[in-house]
Design goal:
The protein is of the alpha/beta class. The protein has one domain: Alpha-Beta Barrel (TIM Barrel). Helix content is 41%, strand content 11%. It contains 16 helices and 12 strands. The chain has helices at 11-15, 46-56, 59-66, 73-80, 121-124, 128-139, 153-159, 173-186, 204-209, 219-226, 229-243, 276-285, 298-306, 328-339, 354-362, 372-404; strands at 85-87, 102-104, 107-109, 113-115, 144-145, 164-168, 191-194, 290-295, 311-314, 344-348, 367-370, 417-419. Bound molecules: ligand FNR. The site of ligand FNR has 24 residues, from α3 and α16. Ligand FNR binds at residues 64-65, 78, 116-119, 146, 148, 166, 194, 293, 315, 317-318, 320, 348-351, 370-372, 375.
Length: 421
């Protein structure tokens, strides 16, 4: 793990926020209220975005984002795992020049958290992939664009060139090569392969709310849309009129199925035979940083290092794949020890507070990613909403880091924590 102390993001630094392509927060950084759009002012924490998004989004779309698999065992464990640790503070440390920036793959980021890949975000928020990527780029944090997305990777990359690309691997090698080739030509530097989806999870909640991919037109869907006019006019119809019917743009080298259709089938079959040989092949094809997302075992982490992965994301997919899978935070320390510095270890699943970010960092993560809250933020306030969410989390990290008595993210280590149980 390489972390450096590049620029101070303490309270004093927040007052004067220069724009900087290398990753400093932009003028869009909302701070504690000045310049914050009215709709965002009551939103004081990431969880507040969920309540706001529930009002804006039709039920199937809100359910798609909020939901997990089967009985939500892993979803709940993702949150409760953070209570297994409490903080041990150090007092009377001069933290006036504290700094939360990090370095990953030779890039400097202004905070130790980023935006996880979230599928079909352009259906929940107007031009959602761009809102997420542009906010991250402007505010200097990492963002991973989902391969299950409705805006072309080329458009997102040219708007926010520091974005990472996440691929779901197609089932055959020719298609894998075609996709990797396209990602390279589009100009992405960092490739993330999500490997925890050999088959679709049992997401009963999607069936109950009438969500499917593609969406099937129905009376129920129409009523849901009409009862959420802000979404209907501000996102859905605006997208149809200005950009046409959204399609899965980035699953393969070529365009995929439309998002709303009575008949179209999305080709997601044939992933269950994929193996480490396929991942090794991608490693050979991809020159830039290569990250594997969805690792929960020390065995797989060692294997990732062996095939030459530069990074791994410890993740149970936000509790959306195997229900009962371990919480990422619970297995993180063992994986960090197993990798022993040979790759960058990152994590996601359940991060909602600056304190959560710091607990994961203290257990050895170089960076964490946040999924649902940034998606809600985009649905509620577009790019400004995402910037507001980044700002809230940044301030929480800053405050907590100060109270912990740690000057830099490098100083946040296991001595900050007490294991409760
Ligand atoms: C996801 N996730 C995900 N992961 C991925 O690799 N590719 C994808 O396209 C998606 N799509 C997706 C859609 C939605 C609606 C959600 C909520 C999640 C998983 C995501 O990247 C991340 O692992 C989790 O969201 C992290 O958990 P939290 O932060 O949502 O608790």
């Amino acid at each position: 793990m390489e972390t450096t102390k590049q620029r101070p993001i303490g309270v004093a630094a927040v007052e004067a926020l220069p724009v900087n392509r290398a990753g400093a927060p932009s003028a869009a950084y909302a701070g504690a209220g000045r310049g914050t759009p009215r709709v965002l002012r009551p939103i004081l924490s990431l969880d507040d975005f969920e309540h706001a998004a529930r009002r804006v989004l039709p039920r199937p779309l809100f359910g798609y984002i909020a939901g997990a698999a089967e009985d939500n065992l892993s979803l709940r464990a993702n949150r409760t795992s953070f209570s297994d640790y409490s903080f041990i503070t150090r007092t009377l440390v001069d933290v006036s020049k504290r700094d939360q920036s990090i370095q990953i793959f030779d890039e400097t980021y202004s905070a130790p958290f980023g935006i996880a890949p979230v599928g079909i975000s352009a259906l929940s928020a107007y031009r959602g992939d761009l809102a997420l990527a542009n906010a991250a780029q402007a505010d200097g944090i990492p963002a991973i664009m989902s391969g299950s997305s409705l805006i072309s990777m080329e458009e997102v990359q040219s708007s926010a060139p520091r974005t990472w690309f996440q691929a779901y691997l197609p089932g055959d090698r020719t298609k894998i090569r075609g996709l990797i080739d396209r990602v390279r030509k589009a100009g992405f530097r960092t490739l993330v392969a999500t490997i925890d989806l050999p088959v679709w999870a049992n997401r009963e909640n999607n069936v109950r709310t009438g969500f499917s991919m593609p969406l099937r037109p129905s009376l129920r869907l129409a009523v849901d849309g009409m009862t959420h006019p802000r979404w209907l006019f501000g996102t859905f119809l605006r997208t149809l009129v200005l950009h046409g019917m959204p399609h899965f743009e980035n699953s393969f080298a070529e365009r995929g199925a439309p998002m709303l259709s009575t008949r179209a089938i999305r080709d997601t079959t044939g992933r269950d035979h994929l193996s480490w040989d396929d991942i090794s092949e991608i490693r050979r094809l991809w020159d830039g940083p290569f990250v594997l997302k969805g690792i929960l075992s020390e065995h797989d982490a060692r294997r990732a290092v062996k095939i030459g992965a530069d990074g791994i994301i410890v993740s149970n997919h936000g509790g959306r794949q195997l229900d009962g899978a371990a919480a990422s935070l619970a297995v993180l320390p063992g994986i960090v020890d197993a990798v022993n510095g040979a790759a960058v270890v990152m994590m996601d699943s359940g991060i909602r507070r600056g304190g959560d970010v710091l607990k994961a960092i203290a257990l050895g993560a170089s960076c964490v990613f946040v999924g649902r809250p940034f998606m809600y933020a985009a649905a509620v306030g577009g790019q400004a909403g995402v910037s507001h969410a980044i700002s809230l989390l940044r301030q929480e990290v800053d405050r907590n880091q100060a109270m912990l008595g740690r000057l830099s993210i490098d100083d946040v280590d296991r001595t900050c924590l007490h294991r409760v149980s």
